[in-house]
Please model this.
Amino acid sequence: MFTIDRVDKSYPEGGLFASKRKQVLSGISFDWRPGECLGIIGESGSGKSTLGRLLLGIEKPDRGSLLWEGRRIEERTTRLGSISAVFQDYSSSINPFYTVEQALMEPLKLHNEPRRGLHDKIDRLLRQVGLDPSYRSKYSHELSGGEAQRVCIARAVSTEPRCILLDEAISSLDGSVQVQILDLLIRLRTLYRMGYIFITHDIQAAAYICDRVMIMRAGRIEEIVPVERLKDVESPYARKLLSMIIA
Ligand SMILES: Nc1ncnc2c1ncn2[C@@H]1O[C@H](COP(=O)(O)OP(=O)(O)OP(=O)(O)O)[C@@H](O)[C@H]1O
Model:
């Protein structure tokens, strides 16, 4: 279980040395249950990506705690093998001087995977994300957007984490490629028995892949609903947000 308890986050407003602070997240509390796909949706600026960075332990909260099975997510040892990430900008996620093979090796080496068997593992990962093993020698500029994002997904699953956080991971892709990547994520979830935290402004994508959806508004949680009850959300804001998109 990943337990987020009364998390607040603010940033200096008007430069690093400004005394005024902008409150970006306030009183965020929820649980991520092992194996589930939890969607986080909300308007631009509602704090989704900030929350994502806290969930990945990249940034620390001002107050509150983020505990992965009782251990602080800010600790590197907690994160290893627990949570990994796929971001929107696949082109800058892969080092342009690395081949696909080198990009996939990086997390495996950090994870101290034995060298023996790495070659086969990379072939297997490429196949699992729908790429031919011959892609191992390609550079990122030789890949389409969908292919590059498949490599990023292969890299995220390579260490077999319990959870992958996807921050707008399909937003930069064309419509048909978006569906292919969502279907790939659904398949991998079963294969690796893992779950996702799926940050998006695309409610249809969230409805396609998620079990529960958390609706954020101005740094607060407005509502958390099972996806099959999305149409019955209670808060007026969530209703308005959904009606704008579903209509
Ligand atoms: N490092 C930072 N320093 C200062 N302000 C920040 C920082 N990161 C985020 N913010 C501010 O926090 C607010 C929430 O931003 P965030 O990116 O988390 O929202 P979001 O819901 O992910 O938006 P979008 O959907 O547009 O990506 C914004 O007003 C943003 O300007």
Summary: The radius of gyration is 18 Å.
